[in-house]
Amino acid sequence: MASVIVLPMTTQSWLLRAVVCAALLAGPAVGAAPEGQGDECVWNPVTRQCVADDQLYAQPVAGLDATQMRLFDDGLKQFRAPWSVFPRADGEWGLGPYFHANSCAGCHVNVGRGAVDEVANRPVFQQLVRLSVPHPQRSGATDPHPVYDGQLQPFSIFGPSTEPVSGEADVHIAWQHEKIVLGEGDEVTLRRPKVTITNAKFGELDAQVMTSLRNTPALLGLGYLDAVAEADILALADAQKALGFNGRPNYVNDDNTGRKRLGRFGWKANQPTISQQVAAAHLGDMGITTSLYPDDDCTGTEVQCLNFGYKKSKPELTDAAWQAVNHFMAATDVPRPRRMDEQLVRRGSQLFRAMNCAVCHVPELTAGKYDPLPALAGRRFHAYTDLLLHDMGEALADGRPDFRAGGRDWRTAPLWGIGVSARVNGSVDLLHDGRARDVTEAILWHGGEAQHSRDAFARLGRDDRNALVAFVNSL
Ligand code: HEC
Ligand code: HEC
Fold this sequence. Notes:
The chain is an alpha+beta fold. It is built from 14 helices and 18 strands. It has one domain.
């Protein structure tokens, strides 16, 4: 039975919400082994033991020296550390003024993906909403929202006491259901989220505001993805053209240099490096400043936020702590694939290629020269992504462009480790907004460039469908 990272217990409702989520995640889903996920041992050759379920995504890559191992542990500790409000004693000071959660692990429970809470009328917690408005001069371009900025933060520290209270707005999801009939007459019910934003503190969001719901992704193997040479990614895009696919790189702001750089992280590949992604997560999700983003993210309208008393001369997250989290993220390994020699899984692997899944979900890449963790260079790995953007059709579209990513574009999601996700923290809520409850549903939402693959899957007989799903869950 997996346990979860335990958040510090307080009686505050905002924290309770996190704890409630964590408790839900630890509930019956974990042992249920959906879609053929067994309880197989994932062997750790170093400790010579099976890795505990809740630690499957938090293992260091092989080959770290003692200093790197210590930094990995420091980074993991910082990732789990709660942040708090002066002068409370339940975490490091610096949370907010506006924020979403009080630790990275509050959303990325056990470094894994977020769980979608389907209970009616409860605000979402492990999902966030991005916002933007059309750029006034450049058609097709967008700006962050002038009042709420690029991300809604549901909590603030502006209560009568030090207890966090509601923030910029609340987000709820209503689900619309639709039935799909597959080969041999099997039926699947899909759910589509409809987001509502209420209690918007600085005025309603009008019709021109673009919103995008994002589920928390799992954070495994990111160093490998950071290390792939740009030329290799561009070569994949070229090779796909010949097959009628149109993978495209995103080019996004590198806030360190002020230049554009290939995007790799985030559902639309809108972050170029682990270190920038980590700094942006501290600011956007917790209101924690860094030397890269030294100012709290308050817009001109958010006067209370702007006038907030204890502006510090130093960033809230020290450079040393930032480096530790970056290193932890870069050095996190991926569980080995399992069951590869089973007949069913081998059949699934053939179908995966035959149905062109492997064109986008590229099975093997090689890490290039990588200064943050030189040990990774030259290693071949199996992430099942091309790190490129693809048009995924209208049903998945958010209509919100992000740098070169259009409103229908998403980065090919890596598939490695997906089969143990339920064991890590109970969640198998897939796709950018968490709408898919398993691999079958995720495939059935594929459209656009992946429409043919999706249709071929839907036509398959039951045995072949099971084989394909078993293969994906073995990765
Ligand atoms: C509100 C919940 C939440 C919290 C808290 C949170 N994240 Fe995330 N994280 C997300 C979501 C959602 C995304 C995807 C964002 C997107 O694509 O727009 C994400 C993406 C990421 C990614 C990119 C992963 C990938 O595969 O592309 C990294 C790395 C990451 N977060 C690290 C962190 C760190 C480090 C912290 C703590 C400072 C943190 N996150 C806190 C929700 C959260
Ligand atoms: C045209 C490129 C393309 C093809 C072909 C394709 N996919 Fe995907 N896949 C994507 C993208 C892009 C996403 C992310 C979509 C989103 O989040 O909305 C994705 C997401 C997924 C996910 C969810 C992963 C997660 O962590 O949320 C699964 C599972 C998946 N694909 C399996 C498959 C299988 C199996 C096939 C073949 C039947 C396939 N895909 C074909 C591009 C593709």
